[in-house]
Each structure stands twice: as C-alpha cells, then as structure tokens.
Amino acid sequence: MTFDKIKKRALRSCLLFAGMGMLSIGSTGLQAQNLHRDTAALLKEVGEVRLPSQAELAAAGNKGASLILPTSPEGYHLVFKGSDHLPVITQQGRVYAPIAQTTVCLYYQLMDDKDSGFALDLSKTVVVPPAAEIAQKVQSGIAFNQTAPFVIPALKAWKGGQGFYLLSARSKIVLPISEKETLSPLASQLQQEIEQTTGLRPTIKIGNPGNSDIYLELNGTQPRLGEEGYQLEVTDVLKITAPAYKGLFWGTRTLLQLLEQHKEIPQGLAVDYPTYKVRGLVLDVGRKFFSMDFLRKYVKMLSYYKMNDLQVHLNDNGFKKYFGENWDSTYAAFRLENDTYPGLTSKDGHYSKQEFRELQALGRQYGVLIVPEIDVPAHALALTHAVPDIGSKKYGMDHLDLHNPLTDTVVHNIFKEYLEGENPVFTGPVVDIGTDEYAKAEAEAFRGFTDRVIGWVQDYGKQVRLWGALTWAQGNTPVRVKGVTMNTWYNGYAEPREMKKLGYPQISTPDGWLYIVPAAGYYYDYLNLSHLYDHWTPAQVGSVRFEPGDTGIIGGAFAVWNDIVGNGITEQDVTDRVFPALQVLSQKMWGGEQKAMDFKSFDNQRLYITEGPGLNLSGRMGTYQNGKGLDVPIKKDWLGDISSKGIKGVFKEKLSSQDRKVSVLTGTALKSSWVFKNPKDKIILSQEEIGYDYTISFYLYRSADAQKTGKVQSETIFSSAHASVVLNQKGTGQLGFSREGYDLSFNYTVPTNKWVHIVVTGTNKGTALFVDGKATDSLYNHFIQYDDKDKTKMRKIETLVFPLRQLGGFNGKITGLTIYNKALAAGEIEALK
C-alpha cells in the first residue's frame, strides 16, 4: 500500500457497514510512523476482533463480557482506547448487550514495543447483537413500533413495543419517596414545561405510578450510561430512569419533544447517551451586544437539544480599516462589569457580575455549562482602550505588549477579579483565556504569556480552555497541558494531530465547517446544513479526520462571530442562522456517525420541533406546512375580533358610509375601526411578534391632530419588546421602524386625514413596503460603503421581525389587520381586499 493511499484512507471515517469489520488507519499514526515501515504488511498481520457471542453476553448480564483484541504483529502490541458507543463497549473493553442491534466503531492503537514514538491509529466496525430475549421476540413475529419516534438528537437505541402511551388530564409526575428532595425541583420545572407545551398541567405525586403517569427515578443499575445517559420506558406508564441527574434531565427533554408533536407516544424502550462529551456554541458578544434575557433563552434552547456548552466570548473589537485606520476610534467592547479598571466595561451594553452569576446558575439548572471567555493577548483592544500603556506599538493596539510587565499585571488583575473570593463571578469549572491570532514573530513571548495565564486561572481551581495556536506559534517555551482543553479551529494555527500528540483534549471547531459570520461575505452566513449532516462529525477537524471513538476529540462547537460591527444584525437575525444549525449539529454531536434517516427526511421533520417550552425567538406564528407559511391569512381582520370591553381610551366605531366609499376600503367587507385619540392609549395583542417570512396588511387613517401639538412625535403604530413601527421616524416624517438601536426608514410619508392600505412584507433578506397595492419601497440589497483603501462594501441588514404586542401611540384609526406567515408576491398584494 502506497503512502498516498494510506493518507487518503486516514481521512475516512469508520464505515458503518453492518455485519462486517472494516479496518482503517488513523491520521495520528500516519504522522508518527516511520515512512520506511511496511505498513501494508503490518496491517495484514493484525488479526480480527472477536466479539462475545449473544449467549456469552446473556450469561454475563450486567457484568459484561470481554472484548478480545486482534493478534498483533511480532514486536508490536495493541492498546484498546474506546468506542463511539461506550455504554455498549466500554473504554475498558467490556461488552454489554444493547436493546437493539448496534453498530459500534472500535478505536485502538498499534504500538511498537521498543519505539514509543510510533502509534498507528486503527478502527474496526463491529455489530453487537441485541439481548437474547429481544432477538427472540423479533424472530417470533410480535408486532412492534419498529421505527423510533422522531426527536433531535435521535435516540441511540430503540426497541418498539405495542400500543401507545397517552398524556391526559389525569396524568401525574411521580417521584420515588427516596428522591423527593433531589427531584422535586425537576418535577416542578417539568410540570410547567408540559403545560407550556400541551396545555395540560400534571400534578406531582410521591409514590408509585399509575396509568398515564410520568415516573422519574435515579437508578444506579446502569452506571455505564454515564453522567448523561438515560433510559426511557414507555408502556401505560412513561418511565425515565438514569444513573445521574443530568441524564434524567436529558430524558425530560426527549419527553417534551415527543409531547409537542403528539400527546400519544409509541410504547417501547429507548436507551440514549451522547457520543461526545462537549456539545457547544460559541457566541461573540464582544462585537455585538446580546441582552441577558437573550442569553438566558439561549441556555434553554440549547438545553432542549441536549447541547451542554455555551462559550460567551466577552471581549473583542472591530477591524481598524473600517474605522478610518484609527485604533482610538475602532469599536471595542468588554461586556462584564469591572471594578479594577472601570473604563474597561462597555458603555453600550454589558452584564453586571450578579447577572452573570445568575446566568451560570440557570445553566446548571438546564445542564448547560457557561464558559466565560476573556480573549488575550490579541483581540484585546478593549483592554488597551482602558489601559493604553499595555498596547503593542509594533503589532497594533489590539495586541497586548508582551514585553511590558504592566501587561501581566493588568491581565492578572482582570482574571483575579472574577475568580477570587467567597462569591466569585466565574462559578463554573472552566474558564477560557482566548490566545488566538497573535503575531507569529513573537512566538516565544506568546507561549510564555499563555503558560502564565493558564497558571493564574488554574491557581483558582479552574480548568482552562483556549483557542489552538501552538502550531502557528512554534517554539521552545513550554505551555502546560494538564487541565487545558483546546478549541482546534484552523489547522494552520493548531494542527490537530500535533495537538493530540502534545496531549491536549480537543473541541472540534473547524472554521471552514462551523463558523457563522453574518453578512460578512466570507465563512458562512448560514451553515451548509446538508453537507454537515452528511459529512461532518466532531472527528472532522478541518481536513483531518480522526477515528470515531478517538478519546482525543472530546466534542464539538459551532460559532457565531459578529465581525462586521454596525451592519444592522439583530438578535433575531442571529437566531435565524443559529436555530437550524443547532438542530443539525445537536444530532451530529450527540449521535456522531449515527444517522437514522437521510438529510431530506431529517430537514422536513426538524421543522416540527420548536425552540423549546415558552420560547419563540424566531417569532413563529400560525401553522406551517413543510416549513412554509400558508396561502391564507393566519389572522384575518384581527382587530375586528377584539372586544372593546376593558380597553381604556381606545374605542371601536363603525365605519361610516363616507369611509366605505373610500377606494381602498371599497369591497373589503370591513365594518369597524379602532380610534386612537391619545398617543398614550394602547391595545395589547396576544402575540409578541411574527418572524420571517410574513405579510402584514392594515388600513390606516392618520389624523392631522398629532402635528398640531408642535412637538415632534414618533407616532408609534406597533411595538414589542424588540422593535417598533413608527409614522415619523426620527422627525423625518417617514414611515419606518427601529430595533436594537438601528433606525430605518421607508421613502414614504403616510398622508394625514386619508385612508391608506399599508402592506409590509419581511424575509431574512430585508423588508418591503406596499401602499394601496403598489410597491413603494424596498429595504433590500443596500450596502455600507467604507473608506478603507479597498473601498470595501458590506451588506446592510434591514430586516424586521414585525412587532405585534402593542398597538397604539398615534392619533388616528386602524382596521383590517391581517397577517400571513409568508411573504406575499407583488401580484398577490395588489389583489388584496
């Protein structure tokens, strides 16, 4: 076998090939091996793995049976390292009968008895048969719910039963008396979430479950399921059991996803557990501020998909070339309250220390580790704005001067403020210190600085996470490995095989696969979901593919980087990019190589799973079919259905005969309008907002009375927690909208004392205005022109998640509020009546 063939084979994943074993060579071994060795001959001498028989597995029971490793070539020995289904074949090589036939990738290394530098990674695919009694039932022809119910991520193993469990008004959440204190908080949370999902509110009971009940129990009989695994048994009672609390919690997420699809759940038995320990999202809050409310909702959304890691990138800066090549005016932000250096904390949005403590506490409740990241010594302009003396005059003020002793003092003080004392701000076990993209010429100084910061953080008992940079910054200065985990993001900065050899556990975060940079024109605006589903797992780091089960890869993370400061991106625009990616990547990080269906089927079915109980960041409204809105209104003349009872100030009146003669109202069948005499008067609607795609249609009569006051008023029509639509945008007289500090206007002034028909359509690309059936203005395809030497243009984000919660803030009348959850075409809008 030639070296080129071996190399190609090394980048291939373990083949899921039922019934046969497929041997492949791992990339780590390729790097370590002596190229003069006859690798092909070595492979021929590696024997077959022997699995215990079904009878042996049955006899072993909960003790498991031993996996027999292949024979080794003379002068070599095999070391078993693990599998991608550890509850079935453990890291110690014990094999347990699964509940369903399971394809397992084994990972082991061929070691030279004399040369410790040689390690050849090998993988082997084996099929482990189910427990004997299950196989007998299948052979006997008993009818099963053979297809596992759909959830994201998919259940690892499913044995179908007969019939269905039905959640009803009589259902209870039942806890064993021995675990009342431990599980009562989870039961109360689940009670509320079931009510939010189904409208039913099961009572909580201590004791034994009955028909239609939900039973939660911590059970140590399956310790190999680990911290996050659980068992779901569905009969007339739905039982979730797990050896650890987090696994039990994940089981409740599965239950909620099942219930939001249907109150009837197929009977059967599921065993579920993650392939990878770390399953995360990195969110850049440095270059775009995200509210604490948003972060708290993201914790819940991530948790709903069993994602367990949210890395909050707390500081960063824009690019100098977009700010007149002036470091002083280049945008930079540090998002956490700081007392040692008060000028450090961003004035345009930051989190108090207590808010951040509470965010971490919420994360613990929902099984999500909050990892705070303070990025040094590059991406550090916020620090040098606060303390200019520590900025590098040679490499730019976004680089810290690593030769200035004051730099160590400042950085140490910043970390110390959040780590020390009886009530530290960083309460979790992991702190990220950044360390990416520093000047290559300063490799030795960079390595020394990195090692010192690791030490400062570890002095407070924390584990350290950092961005891989040690291939880029090669040198002789040692950087400690113990207690340090690395995000490997670009192989030119940290070659993953080299990092594995050094001993760093890796979180696969490859930029060419998993970086979202909204509207930047590079990396991804939206991730390539089908490609990720079909080709990526955390074992893929850039162009390097590790073997499934390789213990050096502990998980994966995708990232949102808000590089283009001020481009108009909103929290909801980010969610529009994150949520579909989250659904796909939760499957890949939990399930690894496992795919229960092809991407087309998955892409269709994922649309029926929401963000989680009580969440609607995307502003979904009404019914969707295959992810598309309907051709008929989801709300037709919404205001006509609202009673005036209990509403103060605003009143409902019949349309006059004169109004009915107005051309835009002729033929509409509208009978009444709401009259607003005072800008303080409001109507509260039942929906906060509607997200992309949508069409909002209404008839408006703007009174001239507002202009007679002599005061400039915005004349708000619609508003929500996130946005407002106004008749007089910033005194321009133009119809417009505002969200997250961005004020946008249509080139249109709503006339006074005249009925007009206004239609607004919105997509994730922009917003359009139609008046009296005609296209009037379009906020699409506009660009920000920079004055850098390249005359760079970046797309301006002019989207609007349309606010609906509050109607009012103007003088006039409104009627015929109609809403579609699709963007109507121009011809359809012209035909509206």
TrEMBL record:
Residues 1-32 form the signal peptide. One of its GO terms (molecular function) is beta-N-acetylhexosaminidase activity. GO terms for biological process: carbohydrate metabolic process. It holds the Pfam family Laminin_G_3. InterPro entries: Beta_hexosaminidase_sua/sub, ConA-like_dom_sf, GH, GH20_Enzymes, Glyco_hydro_20_cat, Hex-like_dom2, HEX_bac_N. Residues 276-591 form the Glycoside hydrolase family 20 catalytic domain. Residues 149-273 form the Beta-hexosaminidase bacterial type N-terminal domain. Keywords: Glycosidase, Hydrolase, Signal. Belongs to the glycosyl hydrolase 20 family. This is Hexosaminidase. It comes from Arachidicoccus rhizosphaerae.
